[in-house]
Every structure is written in C-alpha cells, then in structure tokens.
C-alpha cells in the first residue's frame, strides 16, 4: 500500500508535467526505502523496482506495460492488469490472507537488494542497455524539465562527485607509469 506522501509527490510530478516514469519513480523510491528500513526484503533490486511500478500503476500512474519481446508474457499481463485496476480506482475490499501471505513472503527475503552496491549495479546495467544518444536525450530532457533551483542543486552535486573522483584518477595515473618503469627495469636485467 503506497504511503500518502508518495501519492502526493507523484501527483505533484504530474501537475508539473513530468513523465509517467518520473511519477512512478516516487513509488519505486518508496519501495527501495522500505527494503532499506527493513519493513520487508526483496530477492533482487529488480523485484523491488517491479513492486514499485506495480503500486504506481495501481495508484493510477499511466506507466505503459512493457512492449512484446522486452518482458515475459506474465509480466506484461500483470502490468496490464495493474493499469486496469488503476483506471477503475481503489478496490473496496482486499483479501487479508493474500496481503498477509505476500508480506510474510517478502519479510523472508534479504535486504541486500537495496544496498549501495546493488543499486549502483542495477543503474549501470540499465544504462548499458540504452544507446549513448538515448542517454544524452534523456539528460537533455531532464535539464529542460528541472527548475532553476533543482538544476543548481544537480550541478553542485555533479561538481562534488567530480571532485571525489579526481583524486582517485590522479592516484591511478601515478601508479600506471611506476608499473611500466618496473617492467622496463626487469626486462633490462634479463637482457644483461
């Protein structure tokens, strides 16, 4: 069941004219937070994302079902069912036993799906499936839809990240020539 603040955030995104995927992102973020907090677990990061997308569709966010060939038939069918449920509105009665069974099953799963490493790996693998042009177009669109304040915050965050990565790159660059000179010395000893 999505939290009130998540639904409000998604509505705000919609009123600002943001894409359905951005609105759904609020629900995915909530799910990841739940796994981090220990409310329940997830078998993988993908499962946590799938739960978030399902909740978004059921809350009325118009996230399209995956195209044929990109996901299994069962996944596509579930997405379409969620979209229909979202269009109808909230159901009056929910099976308590089914809800309890789902929660019990998720509580047995681990919490590593929301770890920094797992989220980073998921982001990288998702990005690698898109072309450079697609990623670039998405970044341009994001810059267009951000307000001045958000854009400024994003620029500051990017500068901090670059500053963090710069010393690591310099250290790696210093180590590389040292290895080459050591290899040359050992080759010179062998030849003499």
How do the strands and helices of this protein lay out in sequence?
Blueprint (H helix, E strand, L loop, with lengths): L3 H12 L4 H18 L7 H14 L14 H16 L7 H13 L7 H13 L3 H14 L2 H44 L1
Could you spell the SSE succession in H and E letters?
HHHHHHHH
Count of helical segments?
8
Low-pLDDT residue spans: none
Backbone structural class: mainly alpha
Biggest sheet descriptor: none
Shape: globular
Report how far apart the termini are.
75 Å
Approximate helicity band: over 70%
Q: Can you give keywords for this protein?
A:
192 residues, 2 domains, 75% helix, globular
Can you walk me through this structure?
The chain is mainly α. It has two domains: 4-130, no CATH class; 146-192. Helix content is 75%, strand content 0%. It is built from eight helices and no strands. It has helices at 4-15, 20-37, 45-58, 73-88, 96-108, 116-128, 132-145, 148-191. Helix 1 (4-15) runs antiparallel to helix 2, helix 2 packs across helix 3 (45-58) and helix 3 (45-58) runs parallel beside helix 4. It is globular and about 75 Å long.
Short description:
This protein is an all-alpha fold.
